[in-house]
Amino acid sequence: MIKIGLTGSIGMGKTTTGQMFVARGCPLHDADATVHRLYSERAAPLIEEAFPGTTSPQGVDRAALSKHVIGKPEAMKRLEAIIHPLVREEEKEFFEMAKLDGSQIVVLDIPLLFETGAEDRVDVIVVVSAPEDIQRQRVLARDGMTEDKFAAIKARQMPDAEKRHRADFIVDTGQGLEAAQAQVDSILATIKSRLAADA
Asked: In Å, how far are 116, 155, 196 from 26, measured between CA atoms?
């Protein structure tokens, strides 16, 4: 089973690209969606203990939590020490299910793949990228996003040029959906031909 690590900086079109892989039959494990679910389930009491006043009966209040951690590296490390092991557990279960289903190629959507040293957990790295002006436009159009918030998020992320340099494949989403889909098809064709050659 080939594990594709899908990553890219904020606003690059990673979620949309991930869905293109899903549409082509590749199971996808979304780290962000997993974190979101964990925030409303078993991670909530652990986070409340570490950061009092950041949860409600519905789970973690993301706005309250971000005040505790954004721009505070030590606090962010504390949060990651709670969340990362839980995400890894879920990832393991995902692999087991994919194996049972006979999947040949699976996708791990990991926003901070390089930043968290997750390269060794995947076989192939696909970086989703777009020109900086398109990225800025997409991000600042999001609800509640500000220039400061965008700058703080970018500061935590490896520069796009460095990610592109480290990638096995790049999907450029700045050229529209059809072009991105063609790039995904090409990546999957390459991986499948490698699998056939190894068989």
From this structure: 24, 31, 17
Is 32 within a domain? no
Q: pTM, whole model, 2 decimals? A: 0.87
**pLDDT tens for each residue of 103-133:** 999 999 998 899 889 999 999 999 999 999 9
Residue 47 structural domain:
40-102
The letter for the amino acid at 125 is: I
Q: Are residues 89 and 186 in the same domain?
A: no
- Asked if residue 113 is part of any domain, the answer here is yes
Extended beta strands in the chain, E state: 2-7, 28-30, 55-56, 59-60, 105-109, 124-129, 169-172
Residue of 29, 10, 24, 34 whose CA lies nearest to 173 = 10
Does 34 carry a binding-site annotation? no
93 shares its domain with 152: no
Q: Is 14 annotated as a binding residue?
A: yes
The CATH number assigned to the domain holding 189 equals 3.40.50.300
**Which residue, among 137, 128, 98, 131, has the nearest Cα to 110 in the 3D structure?**
128
Q: Is 12 annotated as a binding residue?
A: yes
Going 82 to 95 to 109 to 58, the CA torsion angle's sign is negative
Residue 11 annotated as lining a ligand binding site? yes
Do residues 8 and 153 lie in contact, with contact meaning Cβ atoms separated by under 8 Å?
no
Please return the burial class of 107, using the count of CB atoms within 10 Å of its CB with bins 0-12, 13-18 and 19+. buried
